[in-house]
Amino acid sequence: MCRILVASRSGFYRWRDRDQQPTEREKRRELLDQRVTDAFTARKKRSGSPMLVLDLQEQGHSYNRKTVAASMKRQNLRAKAAKKFKAATNSKHNLPVAPNLLQQDFSAMAPNQKWVGDITYLWTEEGWLYLAVVIDLYSRLVVGWAIAERMTADLTCQALKMALWRRRMPKGVIVHSDRGSQYCSALYQRLLRRFGENM
């Protein structure tokens, strides 16, 4: 065949052997897939591409979310929901509890009279995340919110701060919550006193 094609045998064998070796692109893809699999496994198979991108960046590997998502799809890696999850409300605490000014009256005649705050949790591609919201009872609009991986007093404070800034620091607002530890914390109470609100 080499004689008919006027090609050297050594050149043919080099071409054949080179064709059987993975290309640089294939090598990079294989390395990416291995890194994504390792990061996915380290997160107990509960995280999606956004969180894995951050983990890989911490390891010194710069990939964008679409690249990591494509690798996960190629390998059929899907984040699974956690089997166990604790409730979002922690009412068993020894912190001071404010009086219930709302007294089950969830009606409001004007904006910024009564706000209610609560915490819930959501399943996302990044895993479980906590969401704190502040709702104006007059319009039922979410006027403040914050999201984080942990349920802390700072989470509820960030949601309240957003509401205060978006509503231009209203005075005399009754801020109602379920009296969980995050809302009864010194940090949250200090924020209420700072802006002259009532809980």
Which features would summarize this protein structure in a list?
single chain, 199 residues, alpha+beta, Nucleotidyltransferase, domain 5, 2 domains, four-stranded mixed sheet, 41% helix
Describe the structure.
The chain is an alpha+beta fold and 199 residues long. It has helices at residues 2-5, 9-20, 24-42, 49-58, 65-74, 153-166, 181-184, 186-194; strands spanning 114-124, 127-136, 141-148, 174-176. Strands 3-2-1-4 form a four-stranded mixed beta sheet. α4 (49-58) crosses α5 (65-74). 23% of the residues are buried.
CATH class of the largest domain: Alpha Beta
Extended strand count? 4
What order do the strands of the largest sheet run in, or round the barrel if closed?
A: 3-2-1-4
In DSSP terms, counting alpha (H) and pi (I) runs of 4 or more, how many helices? 8
CATH superfamily of the largest domain: Ribonuclease H-like superfamily/Ribonuclease H
